[in-house]
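One chain given next:
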Amino acid sequence: MSLSKMIMGQSGNQGSGAGLDVDDVYSNYLYDGNNSTQTITNNIDLSNEGGLVWIKSRSDTQSHELVDTVRGNTKFLRTHSTTANRTSTSGDVTAFTSSGFSLGATATAGVNSSGNEYVSWTFRKAPKFFDIVTYTGTGTPQNISHSLDNTVGMIAVKRTDATSNWAIYHRGANGGTDPEDYHAGFNLTDEFANNLGYWNDTAPTTTQFTVGDDSNVNANNGTFVAYLFAHNNNDGTFGPTGDQDIIKCATYAGNGSNSGNPINVGFEPQWLLIKKASASAHWTLFDNIRGMPIGSASDASFLLASDNVGEEAQFKVSATPVGFDLGSNESKVNSSGSDYIYVAIRRGPLATPTSASQVFNTNPAVGASGNLGQHRSGFPVDFALQKVTNTTSNWEAGARLIQNKSLRPNDTNEQDNATGFKFDYMDGWSTGGAHAERASWMWKRAPKYFDVVTYKGTGSSLNVNHNLGVVPEMIWLKDTNNAYPWIVQGSAVSSDHSKRLELNDSTGLATTNGGITALSSTTFTVGTFNNINTSSANIIAFLFASVPGICKIGTYTGNGSTQTIDCGFSNGSKLVIIKRTDSDNTNWLLMDSVRGINAGNDPSLSINTSANIEELDLINPQSSGFEVEQEDSGATNHRTNTTGGLYLFYAIAA
């Protein structure tokens, strides 16, 4: 059960206030095979609610393995194959649990082989999201009841007692016109074909679907399983308000362009299944944990549901705040004039975090063999700062949305190649290099707390969508293609939108013509300022907001003597960033409790310089937030409490 579900007291009921979170019903979980027993804890309640687990080896040619709670943990199907049920006698999946599933020590190579990397996608049964139905064929058309209670987006049917092709219904087939007349197969690359024998030319309803007389869907006395995916269209019942959509099954037209084909889904997806409907092509699978990076960053990592080959990265499919963008003319996803169908599942969580440890952590790199340079966070990381702390060295910033690229907060350089940067971990990220004093500060995206968006500059006024859910109090923006400064704006930075700070510089507030001109809970508007809106440049923006008891962004006026900055915390601060805004030559100071927030000297770093840690008495621990010390006259660039000085701060609770 996810945190949001526990907080809301949800046990599966919907439609009365708060609904299930997307993280309650879907999981994208990566793991390494070990030829030993292991438990996959993805917080999906399979033992009580039921669902489907789909496993694929990323690192080599192995079968897709599908196992569900209705047929049992020993029965497997393969999307790329016509084979019937494979009965596992080697303990592949040994149990479905209330928080995931367990793997056996003698599992097959497709599930748990030592040295292999795996991806698992878990779909929990839930109204308006996903359902599993089994039935016996009659040889003549029949209606099959289901519990989706929603528009049916896609149905995948497989005969389980004999070899057969998969049969797929999708509401976007034939451009969405009479899709019930058409079918395709997971194990086939063929276009959607018109055939009465599959769905009897009868559209599915919110409670049933119809199969014809074809043996692939209704052989007399044959046994079948059907996996049903919903299509929410402003009728979803998910999230804190119980009215959000989390799954879409629709169609789009390819444009053959390498410069972009944005598809508006209505939310940012974390899982995508795409198939060319009007011609032969593979079924292609993407997800945001393995990577759907932006623009000029790395290619998206994909797997083929219609083939057992390992993971590849050859073309660009990027997640956007409202959908996805196709930056390639690759025929699998974007041939000019071709029709495509897709299934998209929304990125979660939908609920605001209730503990800082869920969304922020700071740790040194792990030095064990095989994990060199990996920083452990306890959650998938969306944004990270990194610094070798005991010597002069550049800062590095990495983000899931730019994958193997790095930026330097202490200079203006465009993005660098950083092939060791990897974000495909469930509990951290990796830099590809070890150093005993390499530290990292890591954030996870969550509503009202933190968001990351990317956009392409136009040179003219531009509205940028985001999913923060509140007005951003602080935004860090960087052009990834050009050597422009990091721009910092937001409602807490200055109520005057014409004012900015620069993260890579010690200057105070300066006037900006054409910077961020408007802020809302869903968009921000950028003007013509080259630093954040050069035509065709890829810009990345990191959006921060305050969450009571979790983090606080604010300002205070220095008084020259010790004063408490009350952030509303109960156990003090894990991270404190301070910048004087009304004067030049004052650094962006970063202190954290791992390196020490002490009554005496504090190990502090300056984000805008390459300097190593300096021991300065700047702040003291304080349960409600932190305490700024009496000003040290010798700390020229490390001002935190000059009388009359105006300071911006960002603190995260311990």
About this structure: The CA atoms of residues 199 and 211 lie 4 Å apart. Residues 130-230 form one domain.
